[in-house]
Design brief:
The complex is a heterodimer. Chain A has no helices and ten strands. By secondary structure, chain A is an all-beta fold. By secondary structure, chain B is an all-beta fold. The chains are: A mainly beta, B mainly beta.
Chain lengths: ~110, ~120
């Protein structure tokens, strides 16, 4: 079955740019979706189909996908961005999630 | 308001059963596939299964870890999806979320707040 690998944690200084990666075999040929989950809350879709933002998601959040790595970028990081981030692809019908990356804003 | 609201979670003994509900409002429920995702405490997201729409014959599919024990159904007249959990194991203890597969995003764009299932003697 398909697997997605994420770093356990990423730290970023306040106001700087955070980069969260998601690795998978030829992931660039798949559509990647990203979810943000804050403590005690349900996940929220922040990027769909590699680069698209749902309504209400700030332009500071962007995505890309190529080769074996998909990337979520958060510019001008704020304390309110602290959360767990999950990448996800479809492996046929089942959804496959990465293990999640905890973003800490210092 | 577009939302999904789960209910039915609780404490159950190993080997027991539970039926979760997912009530939808604010969008065309009958036109949307519904997925269930669970999350054990302190762990990541795990896909449980999904049910498609009537046009796709309400086709279901399940994760290997729950296949044969869990059943997803829906009642479009009530805008509600269900997750029947049978032969429960301690490792099924988790928060269970229902989610909508949105179009054209092809992503899980609406999530409920979750309902907690605890399997313990």
């Amino acid at each position: 079955s398909y697997e997605l690998t994420q770093a356990l944690s990423v730290s970023v200084a306040l106001g700087q740019t955070a980069t969260i990666t998601c690795e998978g075999n030829n992931i660039g040929s798949k559509s990647v979706h990203w979810y943000q989950q804050k403590p005690g809350q349900a996940p929220v879709l922040v990027i769909y189909r590699d680069t698209n933002r749902p309504s209400g998601i700030p332009e500071r959040i962007s995505g890309s996908n190529s080769g074996s790595t998909a990337t979520l970028t958060i510019s001008r990081a704020q304390v309110g961005d602290e959360a767990e981030f999950y990448c996800q692809v479809w492996d046929g019908s089942p959804a496959v999630f990465g293990g999640g990356t905890k973003l800490t804003v210092l | 308001e577009v939302q999904l609201v789960e209910s039915g979670g609780g404490l159950v003994q190993p080997g027991g059963s539970l039926k979760l509900s997912c009530a939808a409002s604010g969008f065309s429920f009958s036109g949307s596939a519904v997925h269930w995702v669970r999350q054990a405490s302190g762990k990541g997201l795990e896909w449980v299964g999904r049910i498609k729409i009537k046009a796709d014959k309400y086709a279901t599919e399940y994760a290997a870890s729950v296949k044969g024990r869990f059943t997803i159904s829906r009642d479009d007249s009530k805008n509600t999806a269900y997750l029947q959990l049978n032969s429960l194991r301690t490792e099924d203890t988790a928060m269970y979320y229902c989610t909508r597969l949105g179009a054209p995003a092809d992503a899980l764009d609406i999530w409920g707040q979750g309902t907690m299932v605890t399997v313990s003697s």
